[in-house]
Amino acid sequence: MSDIEEDQELASVEQLANYEAPLSDEEVSPEIEDPSAIIADANGDPQLVEYATIASDGTPIAVEGLQQMVVVQQPDLEPATYNGIDINFLTSVVQFCRNAGLKETENALAKEVGFTIAGEEPDDQTSLDYDEICQEFQKMINLLDSMFENIRAEFSTLFFPIFAHLYIKIVHAGDYEFVRQFMTKFSSHIPSVHFAQVDLLRFITSPIQLQNCELVQNLLEHQYGVRLSKSCQKQLDTFLMKNPLIAEIVRENIQIEIIETQSKSIPYLDFFNGGLLGHSPVDKKQKVYYGVVRDDVVVVGDKKKKKELKDAKKKDSNAPPMDRIPLPFVPEFVLEERRQAYREATKKGRISADNPPSVCIFNACNTNGGLSSAEISENCSLFALGLNDGSVHLRSLADDHIKQIKHSSKLEAIQNDDDIDFDIYEDFSPDKKPKKAVFSGHSAAVTSTCFAPDRRVLFTSSLDATTRLWGVEMRRELVVYRHPAAVYQTKLCNRGLYFVSACSDQSVHLWSSERIHPIRLFTDPFGATHALDFHPNCNYIIGGSNDRIVRMWDVLTSSCVRTFSGHRGGIKGIKTSPDGRYIVSYSEDGALCVWDIGQQKLAAVQQCEPCPTKVPIQFTRDGSIFAVGTPHWGLSFFSLESVISGDMTEPKVDPSNFLIHQYLTKRTPILDFAFNRKNLVICIGDGGKLIYTRSNV
Question: Does 403 share its domain with 330?
């Protein structure tokens, strides 16, 4: 056989190794140790290429620029079978996975049976210089020890992502002994806020575990955000020039944001060194209308005050246009309630450290398995309780009873009557007026309840993967909104048309009460969302999830316009201030954060009590004070004015005069509370029984 014929035969072998044709035993050349081939160049001289195939006309073509191919390379196994399975059959299975778009399955099967994907090195040929890895990371530790304290806090934010990616590389190489040594030697140098992540990586010792770990996949698919000052960046650049392994990780997997001024607050830097993916990038390209639309607010008072408030409305450039999203009109009786609230505003008590508010707690007892959620209406006239058995209990707090529409048969009789002036509501005697109502329909625990602005309908969500709309006056279920997974929370906007729900599958759904299917779907969170709130202008949704990030979604564009990172635990409570400028969030590690939407930064942080359950947060009607309910601390009141006044260039850590008062409870957790128009605080506590008791604090 001539040299050229032999070259063509070798090229034919490489053609059969492609996905489009099974590999034949007779055509495998045992002398070929790598998937390269020799073809003739333009002058007829032999030329070595990495991969080659044969075109339909018999012309040899280099594989450069073509689709990836799988080449059988099994030096340690019989070429015909693998564990008793025909190689041709395995090749056909790999081909099927490629055609079906199952990339991960294709790669896993190819590597398991010893196939090599073109463009990648086989696992047995992957070589890592373990000594070099240890030396570079040790140099990074030594550099940290030689830095000044303020720069050291910034530089330490790089340790976890670099350590994690080096560890992933070592595990992927398959050297179990070095995996254990690397973890034992360097895990103690990682900041303590990443203890949970490092402890999770400790149990990952094989490549197959890497594919099933959500933390690893998030680190590989997304860049880790780090903020460094210019002085710290210069020292990092000098270090990376001499350490190529770490330089490659920083270049491919870490996003560094340069800040103009170096932070003077070391506790602030230490606080931020705990996000799952580090700092979220500051993106101010998308304009956020955080102002509140005041056209539906009725002003009652003298002419001078009316004119001043109308002029203030015209100057609010941060408010969204009225026609930006379709919103319903405010009912007339709601406007009348707002007029009455404005009249009563002069009688409200001013809350301060020397003048704490009065608190009235209603304990729900005998709850048949436990109280899972509670909600107080905006005017504090009704409250709803969601139980673990799936039932919803509604009770009136005011002197008036809960109205009930007459039965349909009675309404038909009234309709046929000539009397135009008729009443559609049941007429009860004074001693039999209903003060409570019970709704049954959920098959699992009720996770949240929410009143409409007119209090005629009630929204409830449950672990049975549904959100239900109840007619309060009709005493029955009206609509069922079905979800793909259990629903953790449902929140209604203050206009009553849109509501948002959070599912256990890490998705957030935006609904219109007029449709049975969601109109927006948000899948940005890397963890389940347990805290939701609507912005006061109804144009944005605020959500806090287990990935420790607060996100702000635009209802119109369905895009995430703001992200706030810094919590060290999952977020359990969130609330927007009445003026729409600030967000208050509470995480399970006890961090209470105040975020500035306009500047997209942290305004203040207060370390409180850790709480693994939902945390209610409410503002006073003027927005100067907000309160937080926790299981052991009871009710804590904070002054927002003390945070936003003064110098706002640097975030305030545990600021003075921030916490103004606390009401402690012994064993009663606060599920929900509200400020009434006179700043009296009404709370719902879980006393374990369904007997409503009142206690004044």
Answer: no
